[in-house]
Description:
The complex is a heterotrimer. Chain B is of the alpha+beta class. Chain B has helices at residues 40-48, 90-101, 105-118, 134-146, 164-181, 192-198, 216-221, 226-232; strands at 2-11, 14-24, 29-34, 55-60, 63-64, 75-78, 152-156, 185-189, 201-206, 209-214, 236-243, 247-250, 253-256, 268-273, 279-281, 286-296, 299-304, 309-312, 321-325, 331-334.
Amino acid sequence: xxxxxxxxxxxxxxxxxxxxxxxxxxxxxxxxxxxxxxxxxxxxxxxxxxxxxxxxxxxxxxxxxxxxxxxxxxxxxxxxxxxxxxxxxxxxxxxxxxxxxxxxxxxxxxxxxxxxxxxxxxxxxxxxxxxxxxxxxxxxxxxxxxxxxxxxxxxxxxxxxxxxxxxxxxxxxxxxxxxxxxxxxxxxxxxxxxxxxxxxxxxxxxxxxxxxxxxxxxxxxxxxxxxxxxxxxxxxxxxxxxxxxxxxxxxxxxxxxxxxxxxxxxxxxxxxxxxxxxxxxxxxxxxxxxxxxxxxxxxxxxxxxxxxxxxxxxxxxxxxxxxxxxxxxxxxxxxxxxxxxxxxxxxxxxxxxxxxxxxxxxxxxxxxxxxxxxxxxxxxxxxxxxxxxxxxxxxxxxxxxxxxxxxxxxxxxxxxxxxxxxxxxxxxxxxxxxxxxxxxxxxxxxxxxxxxxxxxxxxxxxxxxxxxxxxxxxxxxxxxxxxxxxxxxxxxxxxxxxxxxxxxxxxxxxxxxxxxxxxxxxxxxxxxxxxxxxxxxxxxxxxxxxxxxxxxxxxxxxxxxxxxxxxxxxxxxxxxxxxxxx
Amino acid sequence: xxxxxxxxxxxxxxxxxxxxxxxxxxxxxxxxxxxxxxxxxxxxxxxxxxxxxxxxxxxxxxxxxxxxxxxxxxxxxxxxxxxxxxxxxxxxxxxxxxxxxxxxxxxxxxxxxxxxxxxxxxxxxxxxxxxxxxxxxxxxxxxxxxxxxxxxxxxxxxxxxxxxxxxxxxxxxxxxxxxxxxxxxxxxxxxxxxxxxxxxxxxxxxxxxxxxxxxxxxxxxxxxxxxxxxxxxxxxxxxxxxxxxxxxxxxxxxxxxxxxxxxxxxxxxxxxxxxxxxxxxxxxxxxxxxxxxxxxxxxxxxxxxxxxxxxxxxxxxxxxxxxxxxxxxxxxxxxxxxxx
Amino acid sequence: xxxxxxxxxxxxxxxxxxxxxxxxxxxxxxxxxxxxxxxxxxxxxxxxxxxxxxxxxxxxxxxxxxxxxxxxxxxxxxxxxxxxxxxxxxxxxxxxxxxxxxxxxxxxxxxxxxxxxxxxxxxxxxxxxxxxxxxxxxxxxxxxxxxxxxxxxxxxxxxxxxxxxxxxxxxxxxxxxxxxxxxxxxxxxxxxxxxxxxxxxxxxxxxxxxxxxxxxxxxxxxxxxxxxxxxxxxxxxxxxxxxxxxxxxxxxxxxxxxxxxxxxxxxxxxxxxxxxxxxxxxxxxxxxxxxxxxxxxxxxxxxxxxxxxxxxxxxxxxxxxxxxxxxxxxxxxxxxxxxxxxxxx
Lengths: 582, 340, 345
């Protein structure tokens, strides 16, 4: 009997194959839809447009040969300082991550929040803080000069490579602490116990079992830190001084000051390419070696410090943290309440008296300036932008992080692209925004929403990288168990994935929040004067001479620190269902 | 030999282990049998040196181990969830303890191969542990603990996650390996079948203390307490009240019983009748309506309307009224353990 | 998926809601240092039934670059902030619409650098070396009077300047040295400065607040490159009442560089009449008299009266250095590169 397909059969076969096509090709791409649209519109398109302005065939030949020499020299230094900074950050961050993950002691959450505050402070504030501490007229130098009766400051700090490295460690230690600490907290303690019964002393347990299991998170933290150090701008400019120039600083000089867009474009491309390479390395190394862990609550591994030797080590590390983090930051609030006399003849005496004048002054528009920013407005704007950034980056980042748990071929290619915004020069991107969004149909350059969009671009990679390891570590059998008990897929997600992922989500939210609060570079290029943020307001005060201006800058910086710290503590204390339930 | 003396430990403010004392001799396998959450795993961790006891000591060959850290005790521990190292291969896992001993590489390789052969995993050296089935992982865990020739082996409910066939197969292998090597072993489980299969001596753990100690046969025939009888499902358990004159009133009637312990009138007593001790008769003093019948390999478990269940050799019909006869001889008195 | 749709929808609604309102709005693009009294701006708004929105766009160079980049669809109607070091670049880019404002009658010819009135002068300030009076008194040092004095070993390590490739004040000082010593001699001068321990930092904020001893930062250097009006700001913004300015400027001939700032109407504006009124307003007496205490610059309008603080504490140079904007435009990159090689390497 011959089989002839009737027209209806052919029709349904065609429908069927369309469905198969849709299912197998389009469906895996759905989670990427939001991020793809977002990236294309707010990253690739503006970047392409501004780079085209600089690097079209006619202007390309205006780049002179010594520009190439300059470019290579700058590139080498950028690389060098980034590697050194990353190694130092790991050297400090790893022991501290262990400390926080394994031991419980008074003031731990305060200390944790403290290490995260630098991340959201604009460089101009951090530079002021370091100066007050280690500058030629800083406390340490003055103290030493007093003690040893010296004429000149013994410690030369500002303007050295050391200043750059120290500031980078100051900024980025929190990345290591959070990423590695989170992984540490979820390690299965039984593996360590097994190692101990097999004859491994605590040190060997560390090297043979714990560190290998932490490899994905250590790598992730290292690469993120490296990328941040690689694209560092304010630190190099303010603390390194004119003798040091990185790619980002050079792009700024060429694009903004010299208006040499071709060279700036070339340097931007180099920077982007490097970031892409690092990103590919990251996704190859990290996503492949994700280790399934048992879903334990973070609290199960904590213990109190007992032995005296342990107490000594703990005390030493806490002291080091306090010195490194509290001292530079403490100088800011101190400066904001100390009366700075205009008559500065006496060298040694600085403190004349305590005053709340600077804070009061914040609320006064003494010169009736049209650009006066009431402090609560600035706080409100900063917080609103930060909240928007958190929501947007979580909404876009979650589906992608989930999809990356079982990556398809296409996703393996898309994955490295996610990190690119970190490596794009803020200057380039800001200019790109301006040329892209100033004409209809995309006439958005006047919109205040450009600010959180820019912040989201930078925060997204962090959010995704934070969520990814946590999502990947959930054993499938838990999901299957839930499904077999009658849970629909969303229900499975909520009861199985969510409790495990909630900590990582909180951590990701904190990242997005802090990045948004302290972002200055891109913000300054797209912010509207009616909605200034706290960092913008601080920079305004510092751009004019006068004790009141300086004092108000310090006061506002203290306010920024307080808002940041409060925000972090609040997010960490959030008792969402699922935290610590296992 | 291992001597555990008066170990005490509490958990979240409540006492967990109370004055635990026992010994394990060379070549002996001791099973710790107790309900989940009774502190068995904690006890193993204390013996292994992973946790300190609040009171009490652990001795090996007379030496107090309080000053010996876990990594120097040379005690092997096989975990409930295997706890294999996911970043190492099968060979890497098994070789771990040997590496810690600092043995030369070729000796390590040789011992890894021979240990894997012992657990029937020859050829698995380069497999990733995450790719293995439950039974294979368990054997890797066993091989890992065996390879460094430990002086004492401890097992923390290692077969819990496996299906029955696999469990029986592994139990047999374990028994063989333990007999051959002669290594003293502590086996912790809540499954009485495992315990009785593997143990030379069984220790029943209840409410933080050891309530019965003996060979499997001894413990089975004389559980020693009401809880133990229920836990072991050692026969027909009848709760009752002591009446003056040496009679015990139970829900199915009065029994004249000889209780070794002097019970007071009105005190609660539990009676144990052996499995085959109760018979179904056409007329008798004891009766009840059948509500449930469950097939057991050596009889039927019958539940009556007023609560108690008994073993009967034949299955009655559900809903029928049956009459039972309980011979007065062969009824044991079981003390109730004080619950604290 | 649903969540994404909701987010996308609300985003587009929000973005649409931020479109400009129906009232006539004049957008004025300025550099970051722009400041004005709210009452003065309100007066203009009321008189013209308009709303003025200021778009702060970075420092002078950054703002100009943005204006040039968006030439075909300008971001604003009026652009204020180009100074004479950037004037040539601005004029050559063709971003301005010429306007011969009647207010120009009150402005001296020396400030009207564009004969075609595309860029009109608004204010000027002198970039000078500020010095810490108390320091010099305490050490009984004479204040340097000329550029050559700065190479005197008595002042070793006492001067901090900004990097001309990142700072407009730094560039201004570099141009002053080019003006004084000539194109062939200025590098020699910088060599001697370098030998005399000159400190170079990247930005004005760092130089003034970190290195300068006369500011609240209590830095080590008693001489800094700043503006001649900075001493007045120190008095106005002092935390306690002062009777005398704590700092002053070195005003010898050729030691200061005069920066003039310009405003212009951007070509392509849709509010030409209103823009012209705003330019008149900026050159008019009310705004010109408001500027000094807001931006610490001098008005170009000769009829504008200076505030008391300026008269007492701020100064202008009698013979400031100036250079032709076209010459600046042609050579700045080379001069900066040569300077960098001489001083920083």
